[in-house]
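Researcher: Go.
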Amino acid sequence: MIRKPFRPPTFVRSDAPSDEPAAKKRRTSSDAFSAATRQPLISVQSPNNPPSDSNLNECYYTVLWRRCTTKKNKTWDGDGVLALIGGNAVLTDSDTGKELGRGACGRPLLPGSTLSVGGKEIEIDATLSKETYLAGRHLLKTSATPAAAHHAKPASAALKPLPKINTSRSSSISSSENGTRSVINAAVSTDKIVLPTTKPLAASKVFKTPVLSSTVVPKTKSSTPQPRHDPRQPNALVMRRPASCPNGKQIVDVVVDPVLSKHLRDHQRTGVQFLYECVMGMRCDGEGAIMADEMGLGKTLQTITLIWTLLKQNPIYESTPVVRKALVVCPAGLVDNWRREFRKWLGNERIGVFVADGKNKKITNFTMGMVYNIMIIGYEMLRTVQAELQKCNSIDIVIADEGHRLKTANNKAMIAIQSLNTERRIILSGTPLQNDLSEFYTAIDFVNPGLLGKRSVFKREFEALIMRSRQPNASETELEKGDARWQELVSLTSQFMIRRTADVLSKYLPPKTEHIVFCKPTAAQAAAYRNILASPIFAAALGNTDMALQLISVLKKMCNSPALLKSSKDSDDLPSELLQRILPLVAPNALSSSASSTKLRVLDSLVHQIHTETKEKVVIVSNYTTTLDIIERLLVSLSYSYLRLDGSTPTSKRQPLVEKFNRSDSKSCFAFLLSAKSGGVGLNLIGASRIILFDIDWNPATDLQAMARIHRDGQKLPCKIYRLLVQGALDEKIFQRQVMKMALANAVVDNKASASSFSKEELKDLFRLDEREQPQTHELLGCLCEGKGSRDSGCLLDSVDEEDMEDGRYPGLKRASQIDMDRQETMLKDRDRKSKQPKLAMLMEYAHIDAAHVKAAKEQDEVDDMALKVNDDVLLEVLKEQGSNIRFLLSKSSSSSTE
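Model: Structure:
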């Protein structure tokens, strides 16, 4: 064997002795950067450092997991989240939110670390902050951060960012309410818009003035992008520019047509800008939006302005408009209202509107023709023409009016809209959250599909946790986690949902006072109510859903008037066998006389005082036509003139009835009887300044819509609203359920931190007649005002001097020596136990007035104080009447709240 010569390793220098260290490399830095002047390094803590022993009690990680397997080539089954709390590890799946396993882990973890939990192999991917974990952002498609709402989508590879502009040459046009400024000179070129200085050739000729005045800026030969309307005009409404544009294209300002913008109020201008940014994809990952403004704020006008702008303009210069055809879907009763609104604001000459009704059934006129750019159709008819609409590939935007009707994912109207494959979708609804968060999820997933993840994950990880945290007996952990999920949901939805209340119209409308009137049941009414609850029918209804619903219907009629049980029209909604078993339980005089109804007695006193003491008119609303029949007989007996609108009124005659009532005086037409369900939305009954809701509906949106009928644009007089409830009966329990639903809606939609003061056990107590002096609702609040009109009299003692009490300035307050402090401490602790979160602001904004204090007021100061709190001379006289059936009152005035 031939031996090869030995070669020393490359890392050993052959020219240097092995026993001497290698010479140091000479410093090459200059004197300016010598070691003497060198700055010390800044210590930075790596986010992937293992947690210290003090933080090991609570750590969170994103991980990869798989089932234990003996395969040679292993793959990961999915992503997950590992929560390490107090040495206990809990693994959950990121896609479904389900718990995959538990185990013990008492050592710090680093990215790349592996362990086994609950039979699953885990590899740590990265650390996760506690805030992100509690908010549930790892379960959503996108993280909701406050700043996310103000950033646009990242530019794709085909788009190029706009070059920077010389800030000295740019100028801002306007500023919206949310601080978003519309910049004019942010185009690719920094040249200002050049408008023609010389008259065009056609201007020198004699011509007839056109019928329509054009607001379009004349074309010029300038290469600078020229907007359709002049952005330099006073009060010009300029939309936000996109962050990028395609190669070879330029950005041009989108300016709302002055024909419409001159009619927009401040909140409407902000609403149009918000909707535009949403449908253009500037606010979140989707192109949908929800306009949740309360009734009367002009959602229709804002939507028409948006549609007209998108049909005529595009922010990319010399490109086709953003929208070619628009589809408006609404309840059948509002189709004609939308048609009138388009004609009112744009006329018949500017745009073609196709109304799909019984007369116009040829949908191809819209889908295939060029005359019509907008189609208005009802939800019911939409399902019948779904196949024809799918053939039209040019529907670029869908507006769903009263979109809360799309409550379930299998709703036929929703499926029909989704089949059109239109990404730009807008929901208009004053009450987007009516019953629970599942319906709210449906609305959000409709406008921006997939943004909240899977329905099952949302129900378990958001809805269940939020609802559990709002219960009075929620633990501290449930409160913390539920609040974090609620804050995350609010932050995410605020990117594409805008909500304004009627408070923005306070400077345009007269003040409004709302009274919730608790009426004491008459003796005959209470006796009949107790007999029904004590009968075997009630025991059978508790175990039978159908029987329970029938009993609820019976009790609702009992609250309105026992005489309703004898009405022949009730055979449709109540079985005759049930009526035959119930009628013997009611006294014959109660069935034959309307005087047995406490609400009819209060209504009689109210309309009499309004008719004799004022020149105002009144609207009376009920959910039942049989109840309207009884009220109609009452008005006939009093010889009061009235008009009536219910389900039997033809659609063609409804608007003329409304206009006749608004034009007439109180002598020729004093009252307007309205069926709440048949009246729908959009009715403007500003001819009346008082409205009485005779009964209450399970859905708070129905009552809110009815109350908004008189407090709208054009109203000149202060408005008074009366809601009649039978104290202690089913009416009050339904009202409590309304408050619970509205508290949830306020918390998520209005972003108000409120808590439910009513537990599930209390709300289950529907079938009971509570005959205490004060209503159960007031006692559930834990309020200490004792029905004297103040919000909490126990909290006012510290701010009242002894001299003021001696002078009689505060007659309702007691001396400190006269107060049982132990009792007050017990009441305060009980109130804190019932509601660990802030009190329900909705009812604490009302003045709580016991009618007994009004009658007992003798001194002039006391009388004046009660009159100020009631804020209604008519109602005050009814309260003072001997034998008045009003026992308690909740009053709130919009004028006092603004002050």
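Model: Residues 620 and 692 are 5 Å apart (CA to CA).
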